[in-house]
Specification:
Layout lengths: L5 E10 L6 E10 L4 E5 L2 E7 L8 E7 L10 H9 L3 E5 L15 H20 L7 E11 L1 H9 L25 E7 L19 E6 L7 H11 L6 E6 L31 H17 L3
Parallel strand pairs: 1-4, 5-6, 5-7, 7-8, 8-9, 9-10
Antiparallel strand pairs: 1-2, 2-6, 3-4
């Protein structure tokens, strides 16, 4: 698929509901300004830094990273979407990211993650310089791992804690957003939706990918919760990627960062991550365009 635009990039910080907590946000968007090699943290990619968004109206895509991860590990996806006519917001979940993972696996984190996404969506439509470039009420969410949980919760899923000994499951109160019209789930973590009816209110098209050799969110178990739980199973497209691992959806790591001590840089033996991403990105774009 030939790119139509150049990829612009900028970043901002959003305050979370007068709490003083800052939500870092990476933004990729269509622009007419030519891309240049740009260093973003440890990564180098071609973007038009702080360029002007090309005039027009575009769908909004929000990306939610996994627990202890970071948005720029999916920089190639943001860049590709921007080049093909999407404005992409990639928030870094506070206290559940690579630099500060102090609230991982806490109930507070499960409740706050969907709120982070809704706050980001509200900022785009109400306050950002991109608001005049957005198609109203046309929002898709892409989530990897725990980001898949976050996407499903925002789309109407009702998570519950898992039973433990004599302790009964507890339903969690999370925000949802009626503006969502599509979800893309990459190796999603779904076990908090195991209770009967937890996903009954999720009724939008879903493109879901499972990795055959995923040891963190095993494909069949996690995917079946979605397939058997949503209101209309026919709205879910599910693909199992042969020989892929949990981290195979991330952008390829620079050679100097690849190491067995850095699990996200690794794939199962014989798996070609770049070749897979070259297939994955156009499929995601095609699916999202069906909702425009």
């Amino acid at each position: 698929m030939r790119s139509v635009f150049f990829a612009g990039y900028t970043n901002v910080e959003i305050e979370l509901h007068n709490t003083g907590v800052k939500l870092p946000l990476h933004i990729f968007y269509p622009t007419d300004t030519a891309e240049q090699p740009t260093q973003l943290g440890s990564f180098n990619l071609e973007v038009a830094l702080k360029s002007i968004c090309k005039s027009g109206a575009y769908p909004l895509v929000i990306f939610s990273h996994g627990s202890g991860s970071m948005p720029l590990l999916f920089r190639g996806l943001g860049q590709y979407l921007a080049r093909n006519g999407f404005i992409v917001g990639m928030p870094e979940h506070p206290f559940n990211n690579r630099m500060d993972n102090s609230r991982a696996d806490t109930l507070e984190n499960f409740v706050n993650r969907p709120l982070h996404l809704k706050t980001t969506i509200n900022w785009f439509f109400d306050y950002s310089t991109f608001k005049s470039h957005l198609i109203p009420d046309n929002v898709s969410v892409i989530g990897h791992s725990l980001g898949g949980f976050t996407a499903l919760a925002l789309a109407g899923g009702v998570p519950s804690t898992l039973p433990f000994g004599n302790i009964a499951p507890k339903q969690l109160s999370v925000v949802n957003d009626h503006r969502l019209n599509r979800l893309v789930l990459l190796a999603p973590a779904t076990v908090l939706f195991r209770m009967e009816g937890a996903l009954a209110d999720v009724d939008i098209p879903i493109l879901m990918y499972s990795a055959e050799l995923d040891e963190l969110t095993p494909g069949t178990e996690q995917a079946d919760i979605v397939l058997n739980g949503v209101k209309n199973r026919d709205k879910v497209k599910h693909k199992i990627i042969p020989n892929a691992g949990h981290f195979s959806f991330m952008s390829v790591y620079p050679d100097w960062l690849k190491s067995i001590s850095v699990p996200p840089s690794q794939d199962p033996s014989g798996f070609n991550r770049q070749a897979f991403l070259d297939m994955l990105y156009p499929e995601i774009v095609e699916f999202l365009r069906e909702g425009i």
